[in-house]
């Protein structure tokens, strides 16, 4: 009986040992899977943090671009107001030339296109011009053209078309 009992105990002990070994392997596998999951979690957290940093940088760049765009747009709008202030008033053109009208639609907000009119004694000097360039560079040229035409006609008292064009060419070259 003792031998049978010992045999049964040894068999049970071996079974228990096998089960313990299997549980140990399963536990090791679970631990390994847990470590893999933790590593993946850490990688995902790191990627999330990187994405948040990139998002924050993109947001900051977008805000900067919006600010710069607003500043540029505001400057161009102000240049538009300056350029329009240099153009002859509508009433002045109609006063000097009652049967006239002006159709002025520049390509950009500011442009190299302009018109100018001045009355000297019994003569009316009228210029319609398209300076080289569009946008801001053209607007600079048109403002120079308006200023130079005023100087040529008012100060230099040149009233012939060829004389005005010659002086205008000289002043543009000088400037």
Tell me about this structure.
By secondary structure, the chain is an alpha+beta fold. Helix content is 73%, strand content 13%. Strands 1-2 form a two-stranded antiparallel sheet. α1 (2-86) runs parallel beside α3. The longest helix has 85 residues, at 2-86. The termini are far apart. The relative contact order is 0.06.
What characteristics describe this protein?
175 residues; 4 helices; alpha+beta
Please list the strands of the largest sheet in the order they lie side by side. Answer: 1-2
Q: What's the overall average pLDDT, rounded?
A: 92
Q: Assess the beta-strand content as a share of residues.
A: 5-15%
Distance between the first and last residues' Cα: 125 Å
Work out the radius of gyration. 43 Å
Give a nutshell description of this structure.
This protein is an alpha+beta fold. 73% of the residues lie in helices and 13% in strands.
Blueprint of the fold:
Elements: H1 2-86, H2 90-96, E1 111-120, E2 123-134, H3 135-155, H4 161-174
Antiparallel strand pairs: 1-2
């Amino acid at each position: 009986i003792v031998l049978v009992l010992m045999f049964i105990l040894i068999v049970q002990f071996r079974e228990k040992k096998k089960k313990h070994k299997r549980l140990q392997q399963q536990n090791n596998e679970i631990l390994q899977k847990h470590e893999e999951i933790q590593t993946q979690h850490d990688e995902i957290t790191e990627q999330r943090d990187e994405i948040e940093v990139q998002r924050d940088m993109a947001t900051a760049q977008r805000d900067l671009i919006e600010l710069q765009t607003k500043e540029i747009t505001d400057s161009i709008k102000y240049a538009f107001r300056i350029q329009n202030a240099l153009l002859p008033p509508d009433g002045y053109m109609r006063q000097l030339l009652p049967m006239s009208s002006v159709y002025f639609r520049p390509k950009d907000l500011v442009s190299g296109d302009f018109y100018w009119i001045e009355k000297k004694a019994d003569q009316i000097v009228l210029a319609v011009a398209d300076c080289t360039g569009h946008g801001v560079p053209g607007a600079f040229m048109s403002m120079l053209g308006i200023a130079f035409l005023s100087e040529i006609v008012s100060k230099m008292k040149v009233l012939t078309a060829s004389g005005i064009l010659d002086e205008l060419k000289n002043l543009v070259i000088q400037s």
